[in-house]
Amino acid sequence: MAMGMGSLLPLTTYSAPTTDVSVAPSVQQDAAAPVADTAPVVVQDAPTRDVKLSFAQIAPPPGSMVLRGANPDGGIEFGMRSDEVVSKALLNLIYTPSPSLLPVTSQLKVYLNDELMDVLPVTKEQLGKKVTAQIAVDPLYITDFNRVRLEFIGHYRDVCENPANTTVWLDVGRSSSLDLTYQSLKVRNDLSHFPVPFFDARDNRTLDLPMVFAASPALQQQQAAGVIASWFGAKAGWRGQSFPVLYNTLPERSAIVFATNDRRPDFLRDHPAVKAPTIEMIDHPNNPYLKLLVVFGRDDKDLLKAAQGIASGNILFRGNSVTVDDVKPLQPRVPYDAPNWVRTDRPVTFGELKTYEQQLQSSGLEPASINLSLNLPPDLYLLRSTGIDMDLKYRYTMPPVKDSSRMDISLNNQFLQSFNLDSTQDVNKLLLRLPILQGLLDGKNDVSIPALRLGAMNQLRFDFQYMNPMPGGSVDNCVTFQPVLNHVVIGDDSTIDFSQYYHFLPMPDLRTFANAGFPFTRMADLSDTVIVMPKTPSEAQVSTLLNTVGVIGGQTGLAGTGMTIVDDGSQIKDKDADLLLIGSIPQQLKDDKHVDLLVNATQSWVKTPVRHNDLPSIYLDADDRQPSVKTGITSDGPMAAIVGFESPYYKQRSVVALLADSSSGYSLLNSALNDSGKRAAMFGSVSVIRESGVSSLRVGDIYYVGHLPWFERVWFALSNHPVLLAIFAAISIVLLAWVLWRLLRIISRRRLDPEDE
Question: In Å, how far are 358, 435, 653, 655 from 586, measured between CA atoms?
Fold first, then answer.
């Protein structure tokens, strides 16, 4: 089965309640659902937007689809927001049929949500040529989640066909597209559907949610906005997120507004004062189809409590406004408990790792691969590991031919191991009675995963390869039969165990920050994180703060309710915490021994190492990382940078600085943080972001975070210094030889001593 973007849901979260939230609803009159159960009525003057979804965007990689006789299905998936309706839909197909097909008998069927939309016969003139077809899709069949399925029926002769013949194919180009016209619906101010319309899980686009302040926000306002941004980032997940910041400006789309009784944007000056932390949904003053979520309070302290209510108590929201009475933590967070990370304190079942039902099942003449995502803490120490234990249980349709079919296991596109799929009568009987034992009956079921192939984000893939008997014979003596679909299942009770590994990592390594938010995500609620902001941050700097914590929230799946924000560099001296610097490096930390790059207005300097490699996977030793040249540059072009180094105040604490020289530089920085390709180019201690892309360097000293037992530390130190390892081995051999020599001398003396006779 083909999987489009609509099925790339966030990883399963572990719902451990950590707060007790009390929310009181205010009296309201419009409490109806934003979208009625029946089909909405299309309004003539409602705003519309035209969207072109190309197969390159929403089809499985690489975007094009080759439909074959043995694997005739392909498809795309797309969602529809609950505050919109599709008024027009057109499917534009660009495909090329095989020149060996029989005309008319071969066809392409188009389904929408299993309803037949059209049949495209393959004519003689189309064979081997590129064909363009436009199909009108009935919008009445479009729901919140939709799948367009293409079914290819291919024939190359009248009798004695082989469905697996390589000449039976139809190639659908990646330039094919789905053209949709969306029409907005008026929704009522009802928080029971929150976070809709500010975020809709059916919308596959990057979340773009402005945040509005009366003026440059104070620290508690920044913290409140950061909590909300990280919560929305956790909801957006793989979609990505962007939080533009506006000061006293009415946004042009649905947005979050922060206001107190004394400080509020001008467009809310007539709003009555509040007596408690309040969250209210109101209409946009200039557009009834847009909404504003107003976070109100008597002061900044109320805003922070309201933000914590959104992050912890939104399940209680209803009506057009609610007041947050209390937010009381019940259980503290522990390290490495991020909901999006695989648990490392016990074995984890595959059922816990599923992101949607039927994920561990597949069917077809050639079943599609079964994929499972593993997001791990990036500091797992796997250097001397022999492998990770995985107890695999699986079921499958028995192959008709013995010793001809197999299951292949791959990790991050690297083949690991294969198992034969047996075909015996005993297995056939046991499959019905004890299906979960099928994997045990296949022989060895303990799989050892090579640890060094693991990263922060991993993809485990199971491919079931069947040897399917095909028709044969001649035209006069033909053997035919109906192909039977194969079914494969990976058991939900299969387990994988990461509980026996230490947490230890050489730093600085900006790759761990870019891809996993580490070391800040060690505590998923950011309770060990201190963020240093400028005294009066600009809109671009506040936006960088919100985008950064939003990215971290998307990586952990949890709101950063425990973060601390300060604006004075002297306040971080006594903080046993990891430091995130935005805007500039405090004077107390501007030490050339630790800082490898500095960006200040149009002036910048960088230290380059003795030796450099552009591959993130290549680790250089300490001598190669030492700086050889320091260069200063002055330019008026935009630039941003990310710098990592060890905190001078506490051992094993890290500092990550997000720097830019202008508003354009902050735009480059925010774009890079939300671009998976640019994040993949970040590593080492310095990442320079320019219009041309991202360049990274490994320069400066190495430090370590985490803990290893003394014997592991010895082996780790020796592994990094081969000369010491050779000396240690030589000394060990000499000592062992001396002990053996002394032992033999003692035995010889006792044997030759007359008194022992």
Answer: 52, 63, 17, 11
Cβ 375 vs Cβ 457: under 8 Å: yes
Q: What is the band of 684 on the pLDDT scale with cuts at 50, 70, 90?
A: confident
Compute the distance between CA of residue 180 and CA of residue 111 in angstroms, rounded to an integer: 16
What is the C-alpha to C-alpha distance for residues 522 and 507, in angstroms, rounded to an integer? 14
Q: Among 60, 67, 113, 72, which residue's Cα sits nearest to residue 89?
A: 113
- Listing DSSP states for 68-81 in one string gives ESSS-EEEEEEE--
Whether 412 and 515 map to the same domain: the answer is: no
- pLDDT for position 402: 72
Same domain for 515 and 648, yes or no, is yes
Range with top average pLDDT, 467-471, 527-531, 616-620: 527-531
Asked whether residue 517 is domain-assigned, the answer is: yes
Tokens of 515: 């891809």
The residues facing 4 across adjacent strands are none
Written as six digits, the tokens of 151 are: 């079914």
Total of domains in the chain? 5
Contacts of 22 (CB under 8 A, 6+ apart): 313, 324, 325, 326
650 Cβ contact list (under 8 Å, min separation 6) = 576, 577
Q: Report the candidate in 380, 288, 279 with the shortest Cα–Cα distance to residue 324.
A: 279
Backbone angles phi, psi at 361, to 5 degrees: -130, 155
Asked whether the predicted pLDDT for residue 391 surpasses 50, the reply is yes
Distance (Å, rounded) from C-alpha 499 to C-alpha 456? 16
Structural contact between residues 168 and 272, judged by C-beta atoms closer than 8 angstroms: no
* Dist CA 73 CA 746 (whole Å): 80
Rounded CA-CA distance 252/249 in Å is 9
The SS3 call for residue 417 is strand
Contact between 517 and 552 (Cβ < 8 Å): yes
CB 410 within 8 A of CB 463: yes
Within this chain, do residues 658 and 752 fall inside the same structural domain, yes or no?
A: no
Give the angle subtended at the CA of 615 by the CAs of 614 and 619, to the nearest 5°: 105
| pTM of structure | 0.83
Say how far apart CA 682 and CA 701 lie, in whole Å. 18
Strands 287-297 and 278-284, bridge-based pairing: antiparallel
Beta strands in 585-639 (DSSP E): 597-600, 603-609, 627-634
Same domain as 644, residue 514:
yes
Name the one residue in this structure whose structure tokens are 């009568």: 425
8 Å CB contact between 533 and 567: yes
**Residue 227 near residue 561, CB atoms below 8 Å:** yes
For the segment 133-179, what is each residue's pLDDT rounded down to a tens digit?
Answer: 999 999 999 998 999 999 999 998 877 787 778 899 999 999 999 99
Interatomic CA distance for residues 688 and 660, integer angstroms: 10
Place of tokens 């803490």: 377
Q: Is 7 exposed, middle or buried (0-12, 13-18, 19+ CB in 10 A)?
A: middle
Q: The tokens of 527 are what?
A: 């309770």
Helices (H), 358-424: none
Q: What digits encode the pLDDT tens for the residues 84-123? A: 999 999 999 999 999 999 998 999 999 999 999 999 999 9
The bridge status of strand 241-242 relative to strand 207-208 is parallel
Q: Are residues 683 and 617 in the same domain?
A: yes
- In angstroms, the CA 406 to CA 505 distance is 38
| Residue 234 confidence (pLDDT) | 95
Which segments within 207-308 are labelled E, that is strand? 207-208, 211-213, 241-242, 245-247, 255-260, 278-284, 287-297
Whether 489 and 522 share a structural domain: no
What's the pLDDT at 421?
A: 82
**pLDDT range class, residue 15, cuts 50, 70, 90:** very low
Please check the confidence at residue 74 and state whether its pLDDT lies above 80.
Answer: yes
Question: Residue 151 is part of which domain span?
Answer: 43-184
Q: How many residues in the chain?
A: 757
Residues 6 or more apart from 514 whose CB is under 8 A from it?
642, 673, 679, 680, 682, 683, 687
Mean of the per-residue pLDDT values for the chain? 82
